[in-house]
Amino acid sequence: MIKRVFPFLNWFEGYGLNSLRIDLLAGITVALVLIPQSMAYAQLAGLPAYYGLYASFLPPMIAALFGSSRQLATGPVAIVSLMTAASLEPLAAIGSEGFIMYAVLLALMVGAFQFSLGVLRLGLVVNFLSHPVVNGFTNAAALIIASSQLSKLFGVFVDKGQHHHYETIWRVAQAAVHYIHWPTLLMGALAFGIMYGLRWISPKIPNVLAAVAVTTIISWATGFQHNTTTGIEAIQSGELRQLIAHFNQTVDNISKFAEEQTEVNLALESAHRAHDIVAVLTAEHRASILMLNLERIKDEAHVYRKKIRRYLLTGVEQSDGRLRFYPQKEIPPGVHSDGRTWRIKVGNKLLKTDNLMLMGGGAVVGAIPQGVPALTVPDINLKVVFRLFPYAVIISLLGFMEAIAIAKAMAAKTGQRLDPNQELIGQGLANICGSFGQSYPTSGSFSRSAVNLQAGAVSGLSSVFTSLIVVIVLLFFTPLLYYLPQAVLAAVIMMAVIGLVNVSGFIHAWQTQWYDGAISIITFVITLLVAPELDRGIMVGVGLSLMVFLYKSMRPTIATLSRAQDQSLRDCIAHGLKECRYMAMVRFDGPLFFANASYMEDQIMDLMASKKELKHIILVFNGINDIDASGEEALSLLVDRIRSAGIDVSLSGVNEAVMKVFKRTHFPEKIGEDHIHATMEKAITAAHEKAHRDGEEDACPLMTYCRIEPN
Amino acid sequence: MSIVVISSDSYRRGRKIGEKSAQALGYRYLDREILPAVANRYGIEEAKLIMALDEIPSFMGISTKLRDRCLAYIQEAVLGELLQDQVVCHGLSAHLYVHGVSHVLKVRILASSGGRVGGKVSPADVSRRSRKKAKNREKFARRWSLDAFKVDETDPSHYDLVINLGQIDADEAVRIITDTVDHRRFKPMTYSLKCLQDWELGSRVRAALMEQFPDVRVEADGGKVVVETGGLKREKQKKTAAVKALAEKIPGVKEVQVHIINDIFRQAVESFR
Question: What pTM did the predictor assign?
Answer without folding.
Answer: 0.78
